[in-house]
Amino acid sequence: MTGRLEGQVALITGGASGIGEATVRMFVSEGARVVIADIQDERGGQIAEELSEAAIFQHTNVAREDSIAAAVDLAISEFGRLDCLFANAGIIGAMGPIDEIPAEEFDATMAINLRGVFLCMKHAARVMKPQKSGTILATTSIAALQGGLGPHVYAAAKIALIGLTKNVAAELVSQGIRVNCIAPGNMATEMIAGLVTGEPDKVAEIESAIAAGSPIPGRAGQASDIAHAAVYLASDAAAFVNGHTLVVDAGLTTGSGQSMPLFANYSPMVREAGRRGLPED
């Protein structure tokens, strides 16, 4: 299926690598024109050049409101409208025990992972409300759904994003604007490769390790899996989806793939006081 985003204009933050780059490329393949918003100038420019007239690059620091506003304004000036803003840019940020995390690192992590998304939603709404249409997407995480799956500050920001998504969705739906977020699971991306190996380009080296821990045997999460989710949420196929968190994790947060030796095989039901079998009449 192609052309699902035909005629749309999108702005994707963090669009120069990982999930963002995969989404930029998939949006273009589905007929959209895209503003690639990122701080990675060389890489972002190369992608835009490769995609020709379908994409332009704008240096964008999501921690700065004027930078986000400029990217949104560029979409309007170059393409005439903005149909989808995907607030995807994020970092792992502050790490370590709760009693050792510097307050400054907390603030810096929140500035990108939460405040930056708020600013994206703010400026998307600014131009979408007069249109009476549009979709806003954000990248949250399964660390927002289950404890122990991410650093403390990262998890706090991603939990807050789900609440922000629901609230903004409730406000803007009457204006024809839908707001949703995507919660990726363990993905084979540059960010995770950089965390594990110290070298972002070694995605292939971490893929087998991620696949080994996946609920789907031998299948690591790919950036394209999130891109597919974003295309769906931005398309008319999701016209009745609003305020939703779409989890893309192979079922990890449901317990899928985890060993359940006590419950895997049949035995008579357990009832009061540990007794077995159906209760007698």
Assembly of the depicted chains: single chain
What fraction, in percent, of the residue positions are helical? Answer: 40-55%
The low-confidence runs, each spanning 5 or more residues with pLDDT under 50, are none
What structural class do you assign from the helix and strand content?
alpha/beta
CATH architectural name:
3-Layer(aba) Sandwich
**Main beta sheet: strand number and arrangement?**
7 strands, parallel
Strand order of the largest sheet: 3-2-1-4-5-6-7
Total DSSP helices: 8
Number of strands: 7
Strand content: 5-15%
Overview of the structural elements:
β2 (33-38), α2 and β3 form a beta-alpha-beta unit. The chain has one domain (9-187, 222-248): Rossmann fold. 43% of the residues are buried. The longest helix has 29 residues, at 103-131. α1 crosses α8 (223-234) and α3 packs parallel to α4. Strands 3-2-1-4-5-6-7 form a seven-stranded parallel β-sheet, with helices on both faces. It is an alpha/beta fold and 281 residues long. The chain is 42% helix and 14% strand. The chain contains eight helices and seven strands; from the N terminus they run βαβαβαβαβαβαααβ.
SSE order and pairing:
Elements: E1 9-13, H1 18-29, E2 33-38, H2 41-51, E3 55-59, H3 65-79, E4 84-87, H4 103-131, E5 134-139, H5 152-172, E6 177-184, H6 190-197, H7 203-212, H8 223-234, E7 245-248
Parallel strand pairs: 1-2, 1-4, 2-3, 4-5, 5-6, 6-7
Helix pairs in contact: 1-8, 3-4, 4-5, 6-7
